[in-house]
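re: that complex we talked abt at group meeting.

here r the seqs, copy pasted straight from the sheet so there may be weird spacing, ignore it
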Amino acid sequence: MEGVLFEKLSVLGEGAKYDVSCSSSGADRSNIGRLGNAACAGICHSWTADGRCVSLLKVLLSNDCAYDCKFCVNRRSADVKRCTFEPRELADLTMEFYRRNYIEGLFLSSAVVGSPDRTVELMYACLWILREVYGFCGYIHAKVIPGVSPELLTQIGLVSDRLSVNMEFPSEESLSRLAPQKKPRSIFSPMRQITQTQMEQKTLKATGNMARLRPAGLDCGAGDGCLADAREAVGEDGDPVGPRAAASGGGLRAGPGEGAGQGAAIVRDRRRRAYRERFAPAGQTTQMIVGASPETDLEIVTLSEALYRRYSMKRVYFSAYIPVAEGPELPSLLTPPPLRREHRLYQADWLMRFYGFRADEILTADHPNLDVDLDPKVVWALRNLDLFPVEVNRASEEELLRIPGVGNTSVYRILRQRRIAPVGYDDLKKMGVVLKRARFFLTANGKYYGDGAWDPCSLREKLSPVSPQISLFEAATGELSVR
Amino acid sequence: MNYLYDDTFEGFLTCVWHHWRTGKADGIFSNNGAYQLDLLHYAQTVETDGRKAEAVAEAIMRKISRWDAERIYRVFLTDEPEKEMKLLSYIRLGFKEGPKIRLLHGHPVVAPVQKAEYRFGAEVHRLCGLVRFSELDGGTLFARIEPDNDVLAHLAPHFADRFKSEPFLIHDARRGKALFAYERRWEVAPFDEGAYLRFSGGEAQIRQLWKEYHAVMATKERLNPKLQRQFMPARYHKYLTEMQP
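got the structure back, here u go
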């Protein structure tokens, strides 16, 4: 029996690790159940040997998939060991791990068992046991299976903190080529429903700093900006199924048979129920695979910007494609995962969410791909040298944020100190500014600290991180530039 | 003059009091034996006095701010070298500048204090994730840590809420004390674990499952142990279940 549990955990953990999201942020609640709470900033509990954090127990409920997506380890035609957790078995394991502070909660995903609805019912059964029977109050992230019915989505949203629907690929063509059983409509319609429900319960917030640092020249509705877009987006093709209608229609509220007697008592308790009435308080995220299909970075970044502005996604994750299957449509099995490209995409993503950049500023049709050697902010600054150098004692918040090497914390400190004392060059270092990059683009009290060069070419040379020997080596080994 | 004190926050505040009333402090040192005689300065052992300490604390809150008083306490709990003198300078500057001292991010007196406070907060946050409990016979949860800073009291609110229905204790092996908590009430007290810790029957299996899971989750195409150590420094590995061989 114990051996079986070991096997299930390793097979189903193995299957889930290609989902990159592991954040436990966005929900803030104290322990109103029996065990657990959620911290808004999220807490990482461990890091695996690949340097990625383990915050949630990330597992599949089952890897017994009905679909045959060409890129996936668990596709129907793959020869892998198949197994499925019993809902209670997984709930018990989660509780034991949580008590020992190994994890911050559960990230539950699954292969498609029979049909999307059947799968989500099984997932719901497990989450329901955790919440209602065990009084679990920690973080839950549930993966939504495309094609799930709106009623079930409502149910699972009420027991989860965060929901996510995977885009899988950055374009419709790639999706229909590589995951023929997943239709774009079945992906966008749950996304839309989640955004709509959050709007109804007034918990929809703009992503990162996107509402505050609204770039000039972006016209997408008046007033509260991003939320207007979201309204427009979810209204446009009139999805008739509102969450309210769904909640009254859902027969699952009483909970699946197991343990119902014990759970019902808790459900009746109004005070404890308060948090459960909230639908996905930590919002939704999505993920797409990079490097398995021909899209340019421009397309990817533009698409993520649209997702942020229209659906107020919390995050769009990128996953460097790791070849796990062979096929005429896929890169060869020897292709190393494009880690550097993934890294640059995340940097571009941060520029959009926290620095007030637009997608079309980061990349243009002439330069549709991110520079692998330099970070996108430096590249942007080199293209717009006429805006620099910036005087740190006079510039606006938006202008300060655009200096390479200056981040949100430094800007906050500069703005605060400026109110009572001038900010000198030495202060900048103590404030956390990365002067290695920033000194070329700013002046402090009117003095410039860069060394001479003031054209994109020589600045680029000074800002490039690699020594000549290493770049020769990298050139010789192609993509093998793992940091 | 060099002042020696008994390693308590009250003792430190008493030294601050003497700095003004008795004579300028050239150094403030803990009298735990590490102090080396200094030929240039006369050393005096300060007797901790609650009333003097309270007067200083009250002055800090009135002339600077409550927020800064808490900042000073947090920095006092760090292992920052010469933290006493750094804090004394901070208090002196604070008496001059008032509450706006916290806006002077780049000031040579403020920056080190700010940095030490940041390190303290970062360790508290990191340990919220890195504390590993084991179940003892009888169901009590037990964890051991060796943190750089004295963080127990700052870990308490988080864990006391999270595990409100479980009795648990977190042992700071470096400082010989522990946090005891049950049903949201908690206390920090001296503790010596002795030999009487016995783990429950199911403990070994859960540990094994966690280790197995942790190993499986690493993607072999992206191995990057340096990055792993950056987030989870080697000095924490000793008490991490998943890093045990």
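couple things i noticed - The first strand of chain A starts at residue 46 and ends at 47. Chain A has two domains: 2-308, 337-477.
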